[in-house]
Design a protein that fits this description.
The chain is of the alpha/beta class. It has ten helices and five strands, in the order βαβαβαβαβαααααα. Strands 2-1-3-4-5 form a five-stranded parallel β-sheet, sandwiched between helices.
Length: about 220
């Protein structure tokens, strides 16, 4: 009885350039521990056919005829959430990198990556890693530094001042805030002077903007 080699990494390819596609197929099929379960010229070909032999890893280009690789992997990731997807592309701009990761890609490799490194990256991805070409990794770090939300800043607001600020954020004015908190209009004005001083602002709109920006409420 023939034993099943469960440690073989099943890999599929979506690449429109024939020489690159065939080169990847040869690389994978002639490397111990790998087998190519399918190679497709477009996402329109891959999506309906891939179900017949679902790979562990999909290598996909981005610039494809018809549907883009990013659109395609989003569909495939929804259908086959366990499938690991690696982009293999010439594009190294922030927008495509970000979109690919958001669509479900586990890694992002540039086409100038050496064959040995591609195989190493596939193994890394199957083991739960997120392989990226060095240039891409640097861009990702920079990108996520830029989009990271600001740390919460403490302005020593009292619980009462925080409640009042929350009401202003929700659209209340001094009069309706006074009614909500069951205090006088002058009490609201008194507390607002302290809030303005602590936040270093001069108007209700500035206070609301700073509260939202610094996640104070």
């Amino acid at each position: 009885m023939e034993t099943v080699k469960s440690n073989i990494i099943k890999t599929a390819i979506v690449e429109d350039m024939r020489d690159i596609r065939e080169g990847l197929v040869t690389l994978i099929n002639f490397t111990d521990g790998f087998t190519c379960t399918g190679s497709y010229r477009s996402m329109e070909d891959a999506i309906p056919q891939i179900k017949h032999s679902i790979p562990d890893v999909l290598l996909s280009d981005i610039g494809l005829p018809g549907m883009s690789g990013i659109e395609g992997i989003q569909i495939l990731k929804e259908k086959y959430p366990q499938m690991t997807i690696l982009m293999l592309t010439v594009y190294d701009d922030d927008e495509r990198i970000f979109d690919a990761i958001c669509a479900g890609a586990s890694g992002y490799l540039l086409k100038r990556t050496s064959p040995a490194k591609i195989l190493e990256n596939i193994r890394e991805a199957v083991s739960g890693g997120a392989p990226m070409s060095p240039e891409v990794a640097m861009r990702v770090i920079k990108l996520f530094r830029e989009v990271r939300p600001p740390e919460k800043v403490e302005y020593d607001l009292t619980p009462h001042e925080t409640r009042l600020l929350k009401l202003l954020v929700e659209g209340h004015n001094y009069t309706t805030a006074a009614e909500e908190l069951k205090v006088s209009y002058n009490t609201i004005k008194f507390h607002m002077r302290h809030i303005y001083d602590k936040l270093q602002v001069h108007s209700k709109s500035e206070a609301v903007a700073k509260a939202l920006q610094n996640r104070l409420v």
